Structures are given as structure tokens and as C-alpha cells.
Amino acid sequence: MDGRRKQHRHRVDESGIKNKFKENIMSRVIHFEIHAGDAERAINFYEKLFGWTFQKWDGPMPYWLIITGPDDKPGINGAIVCTGSVKLFAATDPS
Fold first, then answer.
1. Phi/psi of residue 81, nearest 5 degrees
2. Per-residue buried b or exposed e for 54-69, using 16+ beta carbons within 10 Å of the residue's own CB
3. Contact predicate 34/82, CB 8 Å
4. With contact defined as beta carbons under 8 Å apart, do 18 and 25 qualify?
5. Is 45 exposed, middle or buried (0-12, 13-18, 19+ CB in 10 A)?
6. C-alpha span between 22 and 43 (Å, rounded)
7. What is the distance between the alpha carbons of residues 14 and 2, in angstroms, rounded to a whole number?
């Protein structure tokens, strides 16, 4: 041999891996909530940082819907709630 190592390349059926992966993971995250002690301050921060837009929810508690981008683009929307941590929710597969 001329000193070069022989490289072994294994072919992987990626479609099988992708299908198996999809079967075994949780559903896509569909909504998030940011809990904030000062909602107006948080809204100002995220508007400037990410360009998100906010819509006050007309309900019994202080809650602002977050629009993170256009509906025809990948991504999720969320909300700001007055209090303290981040919560993520996943959808269940209806089929």
C-alpha cells in the first residue's frame, strides 16, 4: 500500500432512520409561555430583540399573545403571562 488508509464508507438508508426517528419522538412544540413579573418590560424587550408582535388577550388574567412570525413560515407562537418561568407544550398526535 502507498501509506494511505483505506476509507470505508457505509451506506445508510436515511429514509428508514428518519421514519424511525419520527415515530419515537414527542410531537412538535406548538406553544410557549414566558412568565414575567413586568409584562410591559418583557414585551418591550422581545419586540426589540426578535421583532415579535404582541396582542393583549381579552380574558380574566393579564395575558399577551406573541406572534413570532408569519403563519406561512415554520415556527411557533406563544404568550406572556405575569409571574415567573417558561413552559412548553407539545401537541398529541390526533391520529
1. -120, 145
2. beeeeeeeebbebeee
3. no
4. no
5. middle
6. 35
7. 34
Cα–Cα dist 24/42, whole Å = 36
To the question of domain 29-90 being in CATH 3.40.50.300, the answer is: no
pTM greater than 0.90: no
pLDDT tens readout for residues 32-78: 999 998 899 999 999 999 999 999 999 888 899 999 998 888 889 99
Q: Tell me how far the alpha carbon of residue 35 is from its chain's centroid.
A: 16
Burial of 78 (0-12, 13-18, 19+ CB in 10 A): buried
Q: What share of the chain is helix, strand, coil (3-state, %, to 5)?
A: 25, 30, 45
Residue whose C-alpha cell reads 414575567 in the numeric block: 36
Indicate the domain borders of the chain. Answer: 29-90
